[in-house]
Amino acid sequence: MFGMSEHLQITRLPIAYDPDLGAESRALVAGLTQDTGQLIAGAAGSSPYLRRLIEQEAPWIGDALTAPKRALAAVFDDCRALAPDQLKPGLRKAKRRVALLTALCDLSGGWSLEEVTTALTNFGALSADVAIKAEIAALIRRKKLPGLTEADVETAGGLSILAMGKMGAYELNYSSDIDLICLFDETRFDPADFFEARQGMARATRNMCTTLSDRTADGYVFRTDLRLRPDPSVTPACLSMEAAERYYESLGRTWERAAYIKARPCAGDLAAGEAFLKTLRPFVWRRHLDFAAIQDAHDMRLRIRENKGTGGPITVPGHDMKLGRGGIREIEFFTQTRQLIAGGRDEGLRLRGTVEGLAALAEKDWIPPEVATRLSAHYRSHREVEHRIQMVHDAQTHQMPNSAEGIARVACLMGEDPAEVQAQIHHRLVEVHELTEDFFAPDAGVGPQPVIPDGFDENVIARWRSYPALRSERGAQIFDRLKPELLNRLARTAKPAESLLALDGFLAGLPAGVQLFSLFEANPHLLDLLVDIVGTSHELAGFLSRNSGVFDAVIGGSFFEDWPGGAVLRQELEAVLALEADYETQLDAARRWCKEWHFRIGVHHLRGLLDAKAAGTQYSELAEAVIQALFPRVVRQFSIKHGPPPGSGPIVIAMGSLGAGQINARSDLDIIVVYDPKDVEMSQGRKALATRAYYARLTQALITALSAPMSQGRLYEVDMRLRPSGNKGPVATSWSAFTHYQENEAWVWEHLALTRARGVAGEPQLMQDFESFRRSVIARQRSQDTVLAEVVHMRDRLAAAKSPSGVWDAKTGAGRMMDIELVAQAGALLAQSPYRDVAGGLEQAVAGGWLDAADALVLQQAYALYWSVQTAARLLSGDVLDQNAIGEGGALFLSRSAGYDGLDHLEQALQEAYKTCAAIISRSLQKETGHADAGGTGS
């Protein structure tokens, strides 16, 4: 617990305010060196409280100063060995020694602030632990805790004491209350014994507090404060953990969340306390960046100033070093509020200590490093001043004295001149106030209404107050502060009136506004991104309305960094899911995580940070990471009821665009599931299933995991029509049935589809077997005429089944994406090539002699153009692009994404490309097969 550095390293010494009294105390203590003698004299001559302690502990303190940490450890050992009837006097004697020794080590500079507060905190925890266990032992002996035995004393019968505030953070000050919350694990008791157990636990808690806080002839140990517990005016001194959890889930407030940043189990049943704090994580650490906490913290600051009368100007005499302007609480609020904002997303910010919290915030770029350094230094200095104020009379005060004598005594304990001390304190208070005040929402209310720029429809702006996001007074107040800057930024867009209407649609769709508006207020640069999105992409803007929390990711630090790749994505998602114990919450966590990455890809594409091809690859890697992380969890969840997968387990095979590694923002996932039962006929579980039924229902569970709408929406739509026998076949196919079908029954188009298939998740050996089999099927000798004739028929059927919706439908129709993909797949199949991409397939068609090299280059370039149009279009408007609805911003993005100056030029290029590519494909197929086909019209 303590380092065993023996000697006290004295780096400073107090000055005796009353030298005669100091000399008298020094004479009482034997064995002092010149420095330790001056330390005793200075402390006793300036602090009546320390002088009294020195007189009481004179035979002990001289030796203790020769090896203070060893002496402190011995005091702790004596406390642990106290008999129950000796607790009160024994703990009070220990408190005297701990208080005296830590004060002298503090005044001498031999111990750092952290060493001092840790020693005080550890003594507080030890005192509570021995006191509560003595009470629990007495109740067990008297049969007042049903079902418990003497063996339960070690864990206090399931009663856990949470250290709150400074005690929780190892920051206990010199004359502090200890803030405790006492909870008991109700699962240790039979439900019929609950009320008797609760009564006993409450009695034990009250008796513990009496043991610690009663003043006797020997003094007191600690004043205990239980008022941080839920609803203290009506609840017992000790609550059940289940009742406390229900309270925080339904009624917990921001100040209680802030309090739990520092909470930790310190006494009693430590394991139960840790388990309880784990259940509270979602309450304390919100999943989204919680900028609304700024306003809550600001409101708390104003209430404290009003209630405590600490809101006046900064003058050192009489100033409250804790609650006054520029004081300790300002630094704590500044730190804790930022931790609350971002700690839900970043566990590295969940630190109890104020100085550690500031360092972590600086490391994560939430505050400038120089601000963290200055506030940390001022925090330490403030705490040392606070300690010296309290040392004078052991008073629970944080106020600088008003009198000259009082200030002089504090200065003497610091070993400095009173005027110099006042100047230093004033400087620190002013600088803390300046560094922290601007962070919080301004004291002033809503200012004058902004001037509405020319060309804006005032009726549109007037109706904003009726939207759900602005109906709450708080949301409206924050938005009114944002409105002038927001309107100014809209006025600077290419089409302000159009951007205003787009923003109007965004605001209308927001279910709530406080969090998002607070985020914008704290990060004004996000307004540019919002204006960009609402003015360009209806799809992203609509998505944002429904999922405004994804804006968190933009300020998470890594939003604009390079793409990490599929492997890193999967590791990150695995870590996110590992934090959730419940299957349903895992599915929601996956949705939330996926939406943020999906949004990031869209924003990067929108802003020109990546092209359509890179966007397609990233969307595909994201989907693959989701499948890979979720599929094992789907299997585990399904296995709880029905047992583990019979045989060697299933695999998920990606088909179509996902198999080729290129999808867009709105793509379905084309997948099939294959399993190898190994002749096992039934699963082994509570509700065993026949193997075929097992895998069919497991596949349905996977589809549900990916596509079911939950509180965070859905992940993807799933399409399984490419499985053997299409919609008529089973949703999951056995390995033997799959291989038999592909070898004996599959149509040519199914072998064409196989050229793009890829195993993405599941049993590793079966995935290897699948890839080997896929290659063997593709490697078969085939008649070129037969394959190409089948391609002609497929083009005819596609043309008859679905016509393109217009010029902006780059996917369906002659000479368009699916047409070129069909040619590329034929090229790969005939060349027995395992490659899945379009460019590789076209090269194989050239090598096969049935496609001209120049024509292949035209098709490849056209396909790249189509892909850029298709990917941008899906980001702009979802399914069908309406040129008249995408607006100026959308038109610019669509043109830029395709590499053209404007929509007119792009439209002309598309029309020509469709016609040219359709003619090339028809000509190439007709030359080889002698068949004309319907696809050759090139419309």
TrEMBL record:
- Give any Pfam family that matches: GlnE
Q: Do you know which InterPro entries this protein is assigned to?
A: GlnE, GlnE_rpt_dom, NT_sf, PII_UdlTrfase/GS_AdlTrfase
User: Which UniProt keywords are present, listed alphabetically?
Assistant: ATP-binding, Magnesium, Multifunctional enzyme, Nucleotide-binding, Nucleotidyltransferase, Transferase
For the PII-uridylyltransferase/Glutamine-synthetase adenylyltransferase domain, which residue ranges apply?
300-440, 809-923
Instruction: Give one GO molecular function term.
Output: nucleotidyltransferase activity
- Which CDD domains would you find in this protein's record? NT_GlnE_GlnD_like (cd05401)
Question: Domain Glutamate-ammonia ligase adenylyltransferase repeated: where?
Answer: 63-278, 529-771
What protein name applies here?
[glutamate--ammonia-ligase] adenylyltransferase
